[in-house]
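Lab notes, practical 5.
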Amino acid sequence: MDNLRMRSIFAVLGLALAIMWVAPNTINLDKIWWPSKQKLNYGLDIQGGLHLVMSADIPGVIKEGSQRLVGSMKAEFIKDNIPVEDIKVTEGAQGDFEVILANPADKAKAEEMINNRHSAALQKIGETDKAVTYRYYESYLHDLKSKVVQQAIETIRNRIDEFGVAEPSISQQGDDRILVQLPGMADAERAKQLINTAAKLDFMMVEEEPKIDTLAAMIADAEKAGGYNIGKLKYSEYISRLNKDLTGKLPEKTMILFEKAPNAANMEAGKIPYLVRTDTNLGGEGLSDAFVSFGQYGAPEVGIHFNAMGTAVFRDLTAANVGKRMAIVLDKVVKTAPVIKTQIGNGEARIELNGKRNDQSLNEAKMIATALRAGALPAALEQLEERRVGPSLGADSIQKAHRAAWIGAILIIIFMLIRYKGMGVVSNISLAVNILAVFALLTSLGATLTLPGIAGIALTVGFAVDANVLINERMREELRKGSSFTLAVKEGYSRAMSAILDANVTTAAVAGVLLYFGTGPVRGFAVTMLIGVVTTLFANVFVSKVMIDNLIHRFGVKKISV
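Output from the prediction step:
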């Protein structure tokens, strides 16, 4: 009896916990105290939303990192009195660069300096009399790739949190891909724009020579020779190719960027070229805040507050360039290029947009401010896949799933009652506990229910019914032999247990493989299957046995019809 009491307490406790987790899904408990108010999450296929697969531009990050390293290395050589002719970043996916010394006698000294300060990242792969070529270690690049993707995921999550989307799913796929799922997303276009915005902010000094007419002619010649224009390529690809084609024709440490012409619908319709310096070294890392503000005539702008480091750099930069133009560049697009009239030491700046007072300008200002606050993406993202599920399709899916579930449940209840009578009632109760436990575990684990997950629940119900059928049939066999009902219950459960365990262990093994190797919907199916294995053993084996033992030993029931 003591053993039965403990088993009964365990069963009741399990049932109470299941009710505690499931209740918030069916009852509004916001105004009363409840141990847990967590609700079950629904996937895109049920409630609709946006599904994106993005790829991070790792080679671009490596190249940009090499260029920054070259800049700092030049300063190190000057500090150590080692004259160099040049440090060139070569083409390649591993960020190779070549250090060309002014005096071959300084080569050993230069190598020692690089080894002392950069040995964890760089390896020497070649040399001549006066030059040494370096490359990043594979292990360093692997760690860099992982950090870039994780930082991109965190940045996207911060942006989505500011957007106010409930239960977003943002995860890594493979080496450089990011899966973004936004359930219930109504404004999909705005969300996609916010995710894709790199939000890389730069303050770059404008070079006034060559003049704009000369720049325009150089650009036209390069486009004609290469057979491309801004309408045929993505803007980032166009900028990269154009500046590569004009290498040697532009002053050192400069590049061409564009501003969208006033009243132009896009860059193709009208663009203004700027020749900007690439060595200003003031970007988004110097910001402490970004917010929507309004200009003198009420047009939306983006206000910027610099942190201590950014304030100092901005003050020195403006002091040294009074009378010159400074381009404020966002994602390689010049937003504005005002003339510096005096030194600016208050740590503030403004990004002027199109000067128009309308909702489109306000939304653009909000998006830019949000992206800047969340931080710049560490790498440009390329969209590889996009799927949208409308809420109406999701609602239709839920309705059909509910209908199928009710029809299936009613048929099972009727079958068990007709086939096994009194034991059919016990089986139906344990089946209800099983389903309750499945939804309780899904809710408590924060899992997302998808249509494949619902299929997994349906299959779980099938396995649970199969377990009850095995137990009841074994009990029938024992009763036919003339055994007492108590002995028939004991032997029925004992003899059926091996078959039930075999079925559930093999199911768990297959579900484990699907969970490990599968993605998306397959993993959702696998999760519900694994949960179903646990709840089937708990409800349809343990709880049903506890119910029967209580009926026999506590309430004196001599026999239950089978």
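Observations recorded by the TA: The longest helix spans residues 391-444. Residues 58-140 form a domain with the Hypothetical Protein Ta0175; Chain: A, domain 2 fold (CATH 3.90.1070).
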